[in-house]
Amino acid sequence: RAATLARQDVRYQLHAYTNAVQHQGIGPCIMDRGHGIHVYDTGGKEYIEGMSGLWSVAVGFSEPRLAQVAYEQMQRLPFYHTFSHKSNVPSIELAEKLIGLTGGRMAQAFFTNSGSEANDTIVKMVWYYNNALGRPDKKKIIARQRGYHGVTVASASLTGLAGNHRSFDLPLPRILHTRCPHWYREGLPGETEAAFAERLAAELEALILAEGPETVAAFIGEPVMGAGGVVVPPEAYWPKMQAVCRKYDVLVIADEVITGFGRTGRMFASELYGIEPDFMTLSKQLTSSYQPLAAVLMNERVASVITRHSGELGTFGHGYTASGHPVAAAVALENIRIIEERGLVDNAAAAGAVLQRRLRELGDHPLVGEVRGVGLIAAVELVADKAGRAPFDPPGRAGAQVVRRAQDNGLILRGIQDSVAFCPPLIITEAQVETLADRFARSLEEEAARLP
Ligand code: PLP
């Protein structure tokens, strides 16, 4: 059966990021069931899911309470929309809950089905906001190289990865990219992290001035970059970037699609870095990906303008059939309850400390250039030449090899060029982190033994 499914998968399904399955002949690796932090493929092999699927399954792969609330909500009211004056109970309760979790710093929520749609919505809201304020030229949005914000037309434009632009005629005009806060790769010789942060803020200011502050509307970033390679910014980075934005009346958007709901050991990474966003993007751990759901949170400054303008000048002409879907919202509420009841944010800090320590112990390994991370998100960057920080040629192969060996050793990780990413479920125990780290260390050794 496993072999037949693999053939049918390649024959009938176009995979996202097809290159491995369709062109390199790797896989497909077809998962059949889950239990806790583990998933099992159609051949019955067990893996620790060291990436929580796609950075998203906080409560593990077998949470019965989420199945139960979905079932009950489907029986009670399987669907109702939130267009115009219509609403449904779970979406109201979820919006209130999310605003409460921000300590009231945000004022209103708008629901979408995916992180990409949420960021597209924010792009439109930023434009709408400035139209409402009579500033039709203030529309440019600055994102970052290697940032990831999704793949729809606007969100892919915000994304700063060539693979998401190439052959798609993106990015759209009016979307710009500034430098990624990766000190190990982007820092100058002898430059401290603090000086690096200072330089990046100066570069942002120079870009705003070159474009004209009257044309720059917003700045977007992930507090900790995920898909770009788990880039943890220097401590001074966010306060300095934010100060530049405030100086030129540029809105700040924190894309917390990966970092939200405890990943870094805080409920939101904005708290960790002192970010006071005008918009927040949430998804993934919002429902532990048991249901597709994302949310845009906006603060009073933005919400009041959008509400007033749509009242005075016509509707806010935006919304999805499934915006505020009651089943997804019910699952999100129960998922957040579980995160709170079981202290999973604190667990991310405690188990995360073990993960960070174990990975940093590999820092002296000749293949390891940098270990970075915070809480339960981390990356180990492999290098061809440790002293000179030289990457492998071709880039990506060593990372992919270690990830393949880890998979053979019962551990799912993700290669991002030659960085190996870690993002296990928030329910992981400290003992399970030790097992995960042992399997990774063994995979790294096996690869080191093969390299000349
Ligand atoms: N923003 C960030 C930070 C992400 O990591 C992702 C997905 O990985 C997205 C947005 C896009 O979310 P989706 O894949 O649900 O469209």
Tell me what you see in this structure.
The chain has helices at 2-12, 19-24, 52-55, 64-76, 89-101, 115-132, 153-158, 162-165, 183-186, 193-211, 237-247, 269-273, 300-313, 326-341, 344-360, 397-408, 430-450, and strands at residues 31-35, 38-41, 46-49, 108-112, 140-144, 175-178, 216-221, 251-255, 279-282, 294-298, 368-374, 377-382, 411-412, 414-416, 419-422. By secondary structure, the protein is α/β, with parallel strands linked by helices. The protein folds into two domains: 2-59 and 343-450, Aspartate Aminotransferase, domain 1 (Alpha-Beta Complex); 67-341, Type I PLP-dependent aspartate aminotransferase-like (Major domain) (Aspartate Aminotransferase, domain 2), CATH 3.40.640.10. The chain has a seven-stranded mixed β-sheet, sandwiched between helices. Helix 5 (89-101) packs parallel to helix 14 (326-341), helix 15 (344-360) packs parallel to helix 17 (430-450) and helix 16 crosses helix 17 (430-450). The relative contact order is 0.14. The structure holds pyridoxal-5'-phosphate. Pyridoxal-5'-phosphate binds at residues 54, 114-116, 119, 148-150, 222, 226-227, 255, 257-258, 283. One of its GO terms (molecular function) is pyridoxal phosphate binding. This is Adenosylmethionine-8-amino-7-oxononanoate aminotransferase.
